[in-house]
Amino acid sequence: MVNSVNVEGLTVVRGRTEVLHDLTFSLQPSRITGLLGPSGCGKTTLMRALVGVQSGITGTVTVLGQAAGTRELRSRVGYVTQAPAVYTDLSVGENLRYFASVLGATGVEQVLGQVGLADRSDQLVGTLSGGQRARVSLASALLGSPELLVLDEPTVGLDPVLRRDLWALFRSLADDGTTILVSSHVMDEAGRCDRLLLMREGRLVADDSPSGLLMATGATDVEGAFLSLALAS
Description:
Layout: E1 5-14, E2 17-27, E3 32-36, H1 43-51, E4 57-63, E5 66-67, E6 77-80, H2 92-103, H3 108-114, H4 130-142, E7 148-152, H5 160-175, E8 179-184, E9 195-200, E10 203-208, H6 210-217, H7 222-232
Parallel strand pairs: 3-8, 3-9, 6-7, 7-8
Antiparallel strand pairs: 1-2, 1-4, 4-5, 9-10
């Protein structure tokens, strides 16, 4: 299987502080990889490096066979930031039609249905709840059926039913061949992933399947496995 992402010796320095320390890993298509760790451990910085918007990088980040951030990747990579990246003075549909025109993509109605906003197309984004705005951002990232989907804590603030539905969507996209990297600091979402990258203080402390982590540490859940690995590092 050809990797979708290859990261070798990735280090990120911000000011005089080294934020990420010599990370090496790869991501494969048709898999959901969870990026887990406490707030401030470097998850967002790593994701920004993968989509090519992070400065202060040394090392190599290759995405879909090209250097991260190259122009050719714009329509092939979807990125959802923690803060919804949408225009509050436009309607949901206007936002998506605008982003679709930038990407040269179609399928606005399809992605609205995927994120459960088909009945909100004409509503101003500024009048939506925080969770609904997050779903508009997700819908914009799904336009054009990206091959790599990078999701920075996409389920924060969502109710349990909506979280369940979005994870079902992520699984469906992965089954269709999409490579998905999803970050979270909620350890109970780990079981929904095929593979886990556990981070602490800018370093990877584990790279394994959920079952592999439990077997290696003897823990009964991923949170226990993380604590075991963190204390040993």
